[in-house]
Amino acid sequence: MRLDFRDPEPVVVDLSPDKGVVSTLQESKVQCTTQDKDVYLYYFLLRYPGKTLVFMGSIDGIRRLHPIFQHLGIQAFTLHSNMEQKQRLRNLERFRSTIDSVLIATDVAARGLDIPSVDHVIHYQVPRSADSYVHRSGRTARAKQSGFSLLLVGPDERKAMRLLLQSLGRAEDDIPDLQLDLDIIDRLKHRVSLARRIDAVVHKHTKADHEKNWLKQAAKDLDVEIDPDFVHIEDEDGDERAYRKKKKEKEDAAALKRELEFLLKQPLVANGVRAKYITSGARSVVDNLISGRGHEKIVGVNKAAAIEAVAKA
User: Fold this and answer.
1) Which fold has domain 25-180?
2) In CA terms, which of 113, 165, 195, 299 is 20 to 30 Å from 244?
3) Strand-pair partners of 76
4) Which of 7-21, 71-85, 281-295 has the highest average model confidence (pLDDT)?
5) In the chain, where does the domain assigned CATH 3.40.50.300 lie?
6) What residues have CB less than 8 Å from 47, skipping those under 6 apart?
7) 312 CB contacts (<8 Å, ≥6 apart)?
8) Interhelix angle for 182-222 vs 240-265, to 10°?
9) What H or E segment, with its residue span, contains residue 261?
10) In terms of Cα–Cα distance, which of 309, 27, 44, 28 is closest to 177?
11) Can you spell out the DSSP letters for 34-67?
């Protein structure tokens, strides 16, 4: 005897939220140039500390962004498919156990992994599909807890954002803009520029040293001599100009590091507050610092959740 489970009029029960995301998730967006995304991300991480999951569209993007934020003093870890499983698990554990940490990931982290207590999800690029956006955003605001999702939208991504929202049955105005302190953001641009320049020099010499060491070891194993003209690698011991050039680049990078370290030690002061005379005519600033209400890294503003910056916008 065979049972027929086919129903000519099946009932479909859709348990997904009306807008694709849970009601406890606050969404927001920042529209900026593609070049400035690093700056706006840095601003957000400073202004709203917590556990932040940053999604990027490619592994190359992660490899570019991660060292820049390390130079900026941000506790950031990475997660992507080219990593060994042991390293993935190690980075996940570091992210879980580190206060105010950042995990920069591809979609590997969006499905199937247990990443509890994520305060913020940031989409560095507009996701390619509504499904990706919903699952990425779903890494926060779990178990009826509140959460925050931020879209960084470049000029060439406006159309993609509108199509994404349309597929969710929503309009562009449904996702409010994040309130920003543009004065602070302008001052952060130099920090990010220094970090990029430092990383460019470090990356250049790390890559060159790796290639040289690999070729030398390979030649040694094969018992052959390397032709410098063929492999396009200059031997520093035999080329004084190449040696001096590399030495000068390293000295310049060291000077950039000192400049960046000096800036990172300086307090960021909100517009309207004089850094040298905080106690004169700014009693509320001092009171907030003493009481613990004041922001730890930006003088003149109080601690606040990102959701409040949207509500007040």
Assistant:
1) Rossmann fold (3.40.50)
2) 195
3) 102
4) 71-85
5) 25-180
6) 181, 184, 295, 298, 301, 306, 309
7) 179
8) 150
9) helix 240-265
10) 28
11) STTHHHHHHHHHHHS-S-EEEE-S-HHHHHHHHH
